[in-house]
């Protein structure tokens, strides 16, 4: 068996009305609880694969799916939980709390938390720099 997804980032545009057999039976309920709107738009990391399923993760949330809907994207620069600073804005430092895919621009969008409060503004990787506290 040739492994082709392990170690990649990608999208899995599954919606609750889609075929439930695409999600591993042991993970279906937790996937539904993760987002009532499905998995569309989230950037996942493929941490494992076998003949039938791939394992995707989003931070600490992991689940298995059939690879049918999975499409890879280029590696991302920042990751969930990472501390970053906004370029050109002194003292604006936060933590990445969500990573989604901008379909029009075909690149990741990062959502941050500043001082424990989630910001509604999205940031692209060109607007952020890694920050060590």
Strand percentage, roughly? 35-45%
Which runs of at least 5 residues are low in confidence (pLDDT < 50)?
A: none
Overall spatial form: elongated
Radius of gyration: 16 Å
Biggest beta sheet summary: 5 strands, antiparallel
Q: What's the helical proportion of residues?
A: under 10%
Tally of discrete structural domains: 2
> Main sheet: which strands, in order across?
4-3-2-1-5
How are the elements arranged and paired?
Elements: E1 9-11, H1 28-34, E2 44-49, E3 54-58, E4 61-65, E5 71-73, E6 83-86, E7 93-102, E8 107-114, E9 117-123, E10 128-130
Antiparallel strand pairs: 1-2, 1-5, 2-3, 3-4, 6-7, 6-10, 7-8, 8-9
Structural summary, described in words:
With 133 residues, this protein is mainly beta. The protein has one helix at residues 28-34, and strands at residues 9-11, 44-49, 54-58, 61-65, 71-73, 83-86, 93-102, 107-114, 117-123, 128-130. The strands form two sheets. The chain has a five-stranded antiparallel beta sheet, covered by helices on one side. A five-stranded antiparallel beta sheet has the order 9-8-7-6-10, with no helix packed on it. The relative contact order is 0.18.
Outline of this structure?
Helix content is 5%, strand content 41%.
Keyphrases for this structure?
133 residues; mainly beta; 2 domains; 5-stranded antiparallel sheet; 1 helix; 10 strands; elongated; DUF6960
């Amino acid at each position: 068996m040739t492994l082709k997804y392990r170690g990649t980032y990608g999208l899995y545009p599954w919606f609750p009305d889609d075929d439930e057999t695409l999600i591993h039976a042991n993970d279906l309920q937790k996937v539904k609880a993760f987002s009532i709107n499905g998995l569309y738009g989230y950037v996942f990391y493929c941490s494992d694969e076998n003949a039938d399923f791939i394992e995707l993760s989003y931070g600490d949330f992991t689940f298995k799916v059939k690879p049918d809907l999975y499409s890879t994207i280029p590696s991302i620069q920042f990751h969930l939980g990472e501390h970053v600073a906004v370029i050109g804005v002194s003292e604006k430092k936060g933590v990445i709390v969500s990573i989604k895919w901008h379909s029009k621009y075909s690149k990741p969008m990062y959502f941050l938390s500043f001082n424990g409060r989630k910001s509604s503004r999205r940031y692209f990787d060109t607007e952020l720099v890694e920050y060590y506290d």
